[in-house]
Specification:
By secondary structure, the protein is an alpha+beta fold. Among the domains are: about 60 residues, Ubiquitin-like (UB roll), CATH 3.10.20; about 80 residues, Translation Initiation Factor IF3 (2-Layer Sandwich). It is about 35% helix and about 20% strand. A 5-stranded mixed sheet has the order 1-4-5-2-3. About 15% of the residues are buried.
Length: about 240
Amino acid sequence: MEKKPNFSGPRKPAPAAPRPKPAPQQQQQRPRRGNERSSKDPYVTNEHIRAKEVRLVGDNVEQGIYPIEKARRLAEQMELDLIEISPNAEPPVCRILDYQKFLYQQKKRQKEQKQKAAKVVVKEIRFGPQTDDHDYNFKLKHAQGFLKEGSKVKAYVFFRGRSILFKEQGEVLLLRFANDLEDLGKVEMMPVLEGKRMTIMLTPLKTQSQKKAEAAKAADSNRDASKADAAKNQPKNTPSAED
């Protein structure tokens, strides 16, 4: 016989699970680094610093040697990061800063240094061992323009075949060339014979405006250093390095 299903009426719905009570609202804090560290990170920070003690530097703390626990505690109190900037020092040197701002400033400084780095441009001028005065004066004017714009000038005499017998004339020509340009450039390399070429190198002299600009920059740098030293000598209400 076919068994009938045992059905005793409608099932009662299961009671709803009680909802968890919302946690009390906590004070919002700035997220700190330390739990995770990428292999591409250029600096070690916070809990990843393994030294037992570190030397703290910077304007926002009293400089000195701190146990690593106290250095981390100071960074937490300031809601900043403990950054190891010189891991090979003994003990390692650290600063307490905002890590993201620190990285941004480092990249900005590197970019500025690349922009300030002068790209050396070398212009070449070729002579023959028996160059006439018209051709010489034409190339001399070109060299004057190159030196004025800040480029180096590499002048050479090319000897073909039996013209190598006139290498003394080539050397005299290059020395005359350097002498005619002494107001704009100085000799970096005296005439040198390399294979079929005799070469001389001239470097542009600094103009008066460039000298004044460098002097003004040096004065500004010294002024900033004096201000920084004066600020360091002022008393500060900062945490003490003593335990």
